[in-house]
Amino acid sequence: DGGITQSPKYLFRKEGQNVTLSCEQNLNHDAMYWYRQDPGQGLRLIYYSQIVNDFQKGDIAEGYSVSREKKESFPLTVTSAQKNPTAFYLCASSIFVVSSYEQYFGPGTRLTVT
Amino acid sequence: AQTVTQSQPEMSVQEAETVTLSCTYDTSESDYYLFWYKQPPSRQMILVIRQEAYKQQNATENRFSVNFQKAAKSFSLKISDSQLGDAAMYFCAYRSGSGGSNYKLTFGKGTLLTVNP
Protein backbone atom coordinates (compact mmCIF):
# COMPACT_ATOMS: atom_id res chain seq x y z
CA ASP A 1 0.00 0.00 0.00
CA GLY A 2 1.19 3.50 -0.79
CA GLY A 3 1.63 5.93 2.03
CA ILE A 4 3.89 7.88 4.35
CA THR A 5 5.71 6.31 7.24
CA GLN A 6 7.22 8.11 10.17
CA SER A 7 9.32 6.42 12.77
CA PRO A 8 9.39 6.08 15.62
CA LYS A 9 5.92 6.95 16.93
CA TYR A 10 7.36 8.12 20.25
CA LEU A 11 10.87 9.49 20.76
CA PHE A 12 12.57 10.57 23.95
CA ARG A 13 15.80 12.57 24.17
CA LYS A 14 17.83 14.42 26.69
CA GLU A 15 18.21 18.16 26.38
CA GLY A 16 21.27 19.13 24.37
CA GLN A 17 21.14 16.15 22.02
CA ASN A 18 20.32 16.34 18.35
CA VAL A 19 17.65 13.93 17.15
CA THR A 20 16.57 12.93 13.65
CA LEU A 21 12.97 12.09 12.74
CA SER A 22 12.38 9.81 9.79
CA CYS A 23 9.87 10.35 6.99
CA GLU A 24 9.53 8.02 4.01
CA GLN A 25 6.91 8.02 1.25
CA ASN A 26 6.22 5.58 -1.58
CA LEU A 27 3.61 7.72 -3.31
CA ASN A 28 6.11 9.04 -5.88
CA HIS A 29 5.33 12.56 -4.70
CA ASP A 30 7.64 15.41 -5.58
CA ALA A 31 7.02 17.66 -2.60
CA MET A 32 7.47 16.87 1.08
CA TYR A 33 6.78 18.93 4.17
CA TRP A 34 7.44 18.97 7.90
CA TYR A 35 4.92 20.47 10.33
CA ARG A 36 5.03 20.95 14.04
CA GLN A 37 1.86 20.69 16.13
CA ASP A 38 1.54 22.14 19.63
CA PRO A 39 -1.63 22.21 21.74
CA GLY A 40 -3.84 25.11 20.70
CA GLN A 41 -1.48 26.13 17.89
CA GLY A 42 -2.61 24.14 14.91
CA LEU A 43 0.07 23.00 12.48
CA ARG A 44 3.03 25.19 11.62
CA LEU A 45 5.37 24.61 8.68
CA ILE A 46 9.01 23.93 9.52
CA TYR A 47 10.60 23.07 6.15
CA TYR A 48 9.47 21.94 2.75
CA SER A 49 11.09 20.46 -0.32
CA GLN A 50 9.75 20.58 -3.85
CA ILE A 51 12.45 18.47 -5.51
CA VAL A 52 15.45 16.37 -4.56
CA ASN A 53 18.44 18.33 -3.23
CA ASP A 54 16.35 21.44 -2.71
CA PHE A 55 14.42 22.66 0.33
CA GLN A 56 13.14 25.91 1.80
CA LYS A 57 12.51 27.21 5.28
CA GLY A 58 8.98 27.41 6.49
CA ASP A 59 7.57 29.64 9.20
CA ILE A 60 9.46 28.17 12.16
CA ALA A 61 12.74 26.74 10.78
CA GLU A 62 15.06 27.95 13.54
CA GLY A 63 16.68 25.05 15.37
CA TYR A 64 15.80 22.51 12.68
CA SER A 65 17.60 21.12 9.65
CA VAL A 66 16.57 18.81 6.79
CA SER A 67 18.01 16.98 3.82
CA ARG A 68 16.46 15.65 0.60
CA GLU A 69 18.92 13.26 -0.97
CA LYS A 70 16.23 10.90 -2.27
CA LYS A 71 12.76 11.55 -3.56
CA GLU A 72 11.28 9.14 -1.04
CA SER A 73 12.96 10.47 2.08
CA PHE A 74 12.89 13.79 3.96
CA PRO A 75 14.46 13.44 7.43
CA LEU A 76 14.16 16.24 9.98
CA THR A 77 16.88 16.91 12.55
CA VAL A 78 15.89 18.71 15.71
CA THR A 79 19.06 20.37 16.95
CA SER A 80 20.02 21.46 20.43
CA ALA A 81 19.43 25.04 19.26
CA GLN A 82 15.67 24.46 19.18
CA LYS A 83 14.43 26.05 22.40
CA ASN A 84 11.20 24.06 22.83
CA PRO A 85 11.57 20.81 20.88
CA THR A 86 8.88 18.82 22.68
CA ALA A 87 6.00 18.59 20.21
CA PHE A 88 4.15 16.38 17.76
CA TYR A 89 5.81 16.34 14.32
CA LEU A 90 3.94 15.56 11.12
CA CYS A 91 5.41 14.82 7.72
CA ALA A 92 3.36 15.29 4.55
CA SER A 93 3.79 14.93 0.80
CA SER A 94 2.06 16.05 -2.36
CA ILE A 95 2.37 15.99 -6.12
CA PHE A 96 4.03 19.21 -7.17
CA VAL A 97 1.81 20.43 -9.95
CA VAL A 98 -0.56 23.38 -10.05
CA SER A 99 -3.65 21.29 -10.61
CA SER A 100 -3.03 19.01 -7.68
CA TYR A 101 -3.32 20.30 -4.19
CA GLU A 102 -3.90 17.57 -1.65
CA GLN A 103 -1.28 16.88 0.99
CA TYR A 104 -1.11 13.42 2.47
CA PHE A 105 0.08 13.10 6.05
CA GLY A 106 2.06 10.50 7.93
CA PRO A 107 1.03 9.21 11.37
CA GLY A 108 3.38 11.59 13.19
CA THR A 109 6.16 11.35 15.79
CA ARG A 110 5.74 12.56 19.33
CA LEU A 111 9.10 13.95 20.52
CA THR A 112 9.71 14.53 24.21
CA VAL A 113 12.89 16.26 25.34
CA THR A 114 13.72 16.37 29.04
CA ALA B 1 0.77 36.62 4.58
CA GLN B 2 -2.35 34.55 4.65
CA THR B 3 -4.03 33.79 7.95
CA VAL B 4 -6.74 31.32 8.87
CA THR B 5 -9.00 31.81 11.88
CA GLN B 6 -11.20 29.26 13.57
CA SER B 7 -13.18 31.11 16.20
CA GLN B 8 -14.65 28.06 17.93
CA PRO B 9 -12.05 26.18 20.00
CA GLU B 10 -14.64 23.56 20.94
CA MET B 11 -18.05 22.46 19.69
CA SER B 12 -20.43 19.69 20.64
CA VAL B 13 -23.31 18.01 18.84
CA GLN B 14 -25.79 15.28 19.55
CA GLU B 15 -25.52 12.14 17.49
CA ALA B 16 -27.62 12.38 14.30
CA GLU B 17 -27.82 16.17 14.54
CA THR B 18 -26.14 18.77 12.33
CA VAL B 19 -23.23 20.98 13.32
CA THR B 20 -21.42 23.81 11.54
CA LEU B 21 -17.78 24.69 12.13
CA SER B 22 -16.62 28.18 11.22
CA CYS B 23 -13.51 29.32 9.39
CA THR B 24 -12.47 32.68 8.06
CA TYR B 25 -9.31 33.55 6.19
CA ASP B 26 -7.44 36.59 5.07
CA THR B 27 -5.80 36.81 1.67
CA SER B 28 -5.23 39.23 -1.17
CA GLU B 29 -5.09 36.44 -3.75
CA SER B 30 -7.93 35.48 -6.06
CA ASP B 31 -6.71 31.96 -6.84
CA TYR B 32 -6.47 29.58 -3.89
CA TYR B 33 -7.73 26.37 -2.36
CA LEU B 34 -9.40 25.71 0.98
CA PHE B 35 -9.50 22.49 2.94
CA TRP B 36 -10.97 20.91 6.01
CA TYR B 37 -8.83 18.25 7.67
CA LYS B 38 -9.93 15.94 10.46
CA GLN B 39 -7.57 14.72 13.18
CA PRO B 40 -9.10 11.93 15.31
CA PRO B 41 -7.50 10.75 18.57
CA SER B 42 -5.07 8.64 16.52
CA ARG B 43 -3.67 12.01 15.33
CA GLN B 44 -3.66 10.93 11.70
CA MET B 45 -4.61 13.92 9.55
CA ILE B 46 -7.39 13.05 7.11
CA LEU B 47 -8.66 15.28 4.33
CA VAL B 48 -12.41 15.79 4.69
CA ILE B 49 -13.26 18.17 1.87
CA ARG B 50 -11.67 20.74 -0.44
CA GLN B 51 -12.87 23.79 -2.33
CA GLU B 52 -11.32 25.60 -5.25
CA ALA B 53 -11.82 29.35 -4.99
CA TYR B 54 -12.72 29.68 -8.67
CA LYS B 55 -15.68 27.34 -8.25
CA GLN B 56 -18.90 28.97 -7.12
CA GLN B 57 -20.56 25.68 -6.26
CA ASN B 58 -20.06 24.53 -2.71
CA ALA B 59 -18.21 21.23 -2.33
CA THR B 60 -19.96 18.23 -0.80
CA GLU B 61 -18.70 14.82 0.30
CA ASN B 62 -21.46 12.58 1.61
CA ARG B 63 -22.47 14.03 5.01
CA PHE B 64 -19.93 16.85 4.78
CA SER B 65 -20.55 20.09 2.92
CA VAL B 66 -19.12 23.57 2.93
CA ASN B 67 -20.55 27.06 2.71
CA PHE B 68 -17.96 29.02 0.75
CA GLN B 69 -18.50 32.76 0.78
CA LYS B 70 -15.62 34.21 -1.23
CA ALA B 71 -16.44 37.86 -0.73
CA ALA B 72 -16.77 37.38 3.00
CA LYS B 73 -13.68 35.10 3.07
CA SER B 74 -15.64 32.51 4.96
CA PHE B 75 -15.45 28.73 4.63
CA SER B 76 -17.65 26.83 7.08
CA LEU B 77 -18.02 23.06 7.34
CA LYS B 78 -21.41 21.46 7.90
CA ILE B 79 -21.60 17.90 9.20
CA SER B 80 -25.02 16.33 8.81
CA ASP B 81 -26.31 13.27 10.68
CA SER B 82 -23.33 13.43 13.05
CA GLN B 83 -21.81 10.11 14.05
CA LEU B 84 -19.65 9.15 17.01
CA GLY B 85 -16.76 8.63 14.61
CA ASP B 86 -16.91 12.29 13.63
CA ALA B 87 -15.49 13.27 17.01
CA ALA B 88 -12.11 14.82 16.26
CA MET B 89 -10.14 18.02 15.94
CA TYR B 90 -11.03 19.79 12.70
CA PHE B 91 -8.60 22.10 10.96
CA CYS B 92 -9.32 24.61 8.25
CA ALA B 93 -6.43 25.20 5.84
CA TYR B 94 -5.54 27.53 2.99
CA ARG B 95 -3.25 26.98 0.01
CA SER B 96 -2.25 29.57 -2.54
CA GLY B 97 -3.00 28.77 -6.16
CA SER B 98 -0.26 30.95 -7.53
CA GLY B 99 2.39 28.26 -7.38
CA GLY B 100 6.08 28.79 -6.80
CA SER B 101 6.96 28.47 -3.15
CA ASN B 102 3.40 28.90 -2.05
CA TYR B 103 2.15 25.35 -2.14
CA LYS B 104 2.39 25.16 1.63
CA LEU B 105 -0.74 24.86 3.74
CA THR B 106 -1.62 27.50 6.31
CA PHE B 107 -3.73 26.04 9.10
CA GLY B 108 -6.16 27.45 11.61
CA LYS B 109 -5.79 26.49 15.26
CA GLY B 110 -8.53 23.89 15.09
CA THR B 111 -11.97 23.17 16.52
CA LEU B 112 -12.42 20.19 18.82
CA LEU B 113 -15.73 18.50 18.01
CA THR B 114 -17.42 16.26 20.58
CA VAL B 115 -20.30 14.02 19.53
CA ASN B 116 -22.67 13.08 22.33
CA PRO B 117 -24.62 9.79 22.12
Quantity of strands of chain A, as a count: 11
User: Poorly predicted ranges of chain A (pLDDT <50, ≥5 residues)?
Assistant: none
For the record, give the distance between the C-alpha atoms at the N and C termini of chain B, rounded to a whole number: 41 Å
Q: Total number of helical segments of chain A? A: 0
Oligomer: heterodimer
The Rg value of chain A, from CA coordinates, equals 13 Å
Structure commentary:
Chain A has 114 residues and is mostly beta strands. In chain A, 0% of the residues lie in helices and 51% in strands. Chain A is built from no helices and 11 strands. The radius of gyration of chain A is 13 Å and the shape is globular. By secondary structure, chain B is an all-beta fold. Chain B is built from no helices and 12 strands. In chain B, the strands form 3 sheets. In chain B, strands 2, 5, 6, 10, 11 and 12 form a 6-stranded mixed beta sheet that branches. Chain B is globular, with a radius of gyration of 14 Å. Classes of the chains: A mainly beta (114), B mainly beta (117). The interface between A and B is medium-sized, with 26 and 23 residues.
Key traits:
heterodimer; A: 114 residues; mainly beta; four-stranded antiparallel beta sheet; globular; B: 117 residues; six-stranded mixed beta sheet; 0% helix
Task: Give a quick summary of the entry.
The complex is a heterodimer of chains A (114) and B (117). Chain A is mainly β and 114 residues long. Chain A is built from no helices and eleven strands.
